[in-house]
Amino acid sequence: MRFGGRASMVACAAGLCLGAVVLAADAVQADSSAQLPISSFHQMAVDAAHGQIFISSPAQDEILVTNLSGQEITTIAGQTGVTGIALSSDGSTLYAALSAGDAVTAISTTTLQQVASYPLAAGDSPQDVAVQSGEVWVSYNSGPGSAAIGEIDPTNSSFQTPSAMAIWDSAPALAADPSNSGILVAVETGSTSSTNTSALVSYNTANQVGLIDQSSLPSGCENVQDVAVLPGGSYFVLACASLQADGLYSTVNMNQQASYASSSNPTAVAIDSGGDVAVGGDAANNGLAPAPDVNVFQHGGSAPVNELAVNIPASAALAPRGLAWSPDGSQLFAVVKTTSPTTYAMEIVDQPVVTRSTLTLTGPSSARVTHAISLTGNLGLSTGSPPAGTAIKVTRTQAGSTATATFTASTATGGGYQLTDTPPAAGTYTYSAVYAGSTSIAPAQASQVVTVSKLPVALSLSSTPRHVTYNSTVHLTVHLGPTFTSRTVRIYVHDLSKKSTTLLRTATIGSSGALTINYKAPHTAIFTAKFAGDAHYAAKTVTHTVSVPARVSERLTGYFRKSGKYFLFHVSRFLFDHTTVSPNKRGQCVKFQSQEHIGGAWRRAGTTHCFRLSSASAFVQKFGLTLADQNIPYRIRVDFIHKSSDPSNANSQSPWLYFKVEP
Fold it and tell me: How far out from the chain centre does Cα 648 lie?
């Protein structure tokens, strides 16, 4: 985004070399703000020695007193139609022009009480005041189209109007040299004509001499809103709302020396005791967002050191004459006016002559150990860009550790910089970037937190045979992928007939990546392999369940002979089916299931209810055969169904036994 406007002449005189240099930058916001309990505003004066600001409010006939944060301290009432205000050179007295009171009052800055009043002639309406050469200078209207500038001697309360200063159509705004050289500049404000012959005067109050008498306004400078004199008295600055720059002029010949770049519609100018200049305007209406409502120039500087956005909200505008410095230049105060409804706020910028800097640092929030991390950032200035090669210090710290690492990155053209780093181990790291700043640029810092996790390890556990039988040997195979320093794996077994887990083996797996363990499994078992991890690879645990069914044995008795696989029974006798379940499952359930071969297929013949196994894990079931089909193949088996409270062996069945029933 580019701020400012037209180019202007550049001139160098008496150590000044200024120009309307336009730089791309982001407008800096005010550091703090406060609402002001006023309905009108004319001028403010900063009394840093007592930590207070005086604000004249004509509509309320009072002077608001705030602290340096804009918070109300008190109000000084009885200041009828108060407009212009100015502090004495020693800061002990505030002078106020009472436009509706035909007087100038003096107020103690210590007691905040009115201590004197200097009346003007009846009908003379004072508008502005300035202190110079020990005198209080006051501009006043004495009738339609008639105005003048008078001087008050506070030591004897005398009042007079030098003949050279009785030349005005309307009471002008006054600005005096803050270094008390004797220079006073007066200018009619609000004029829409650039040919008014009594619009501008430079006056030497020490010698009572008008340096330039009845001078017209500079070409193009219409609707003057504010004026200020640089320390030393050689130059003054005008804020002309018709221009997009505040002009710097000579108090000797009124010639324009240079321009201070401003936003559109300049309305205010303020100068501190060191010659730093702040110029501002109504940027709310110029289509820029955010806009640099105030530009700040160091004494003799050719470009703004800061571009400040003080108009908050966007519908607000910097009030005419709404800028003031603390004398030492450490703070800049701006009064902002909002319409519909009308409200006022104080915006405060700390260290306004120090160029603001911003620093960013971005990168991944997470990474893997041994993987390089790429961090990028940018150094920005509130006006202009940092030179290529500007050093950025980046420090890496790890949570829970005192070890640090420091890197130096250099900015490229435009302020960008980058850094690549590989953290030494897993952990939470903070990368802190710092720009140290300089005598004219504020420091800045930024940080990025990166959580570095260990690499995932490849660990698996499998078994053969895939389907085991009771009390058979299981061949367990552990596979371990690449690691950093450790190859140790621990293998555990939890026999579900027991409550505890047993360590089977602690082994170091070689380069083949595989380890085989044999285990005889009488019960269902859960096997666990654990890798504890190392500096680069994360710990991992895998499990594998081998389900071992119970063994169900079955034998038949009561038959009279056997033919092939068939047991032959007489229809008048009984079939006894003997079953035993291993391991011992006393009290658990067995069922007997029979099928008959009919029509070329085995079809269900019957299933018994549940019978409880004896203490020997056995049971004998007696079957009558009188209702059986004769000479038709039958088969029978026993089904074991475990209790839900005993998962140590899975359900199982005996093999089928075949029989026939004969006459």
Answer: 57
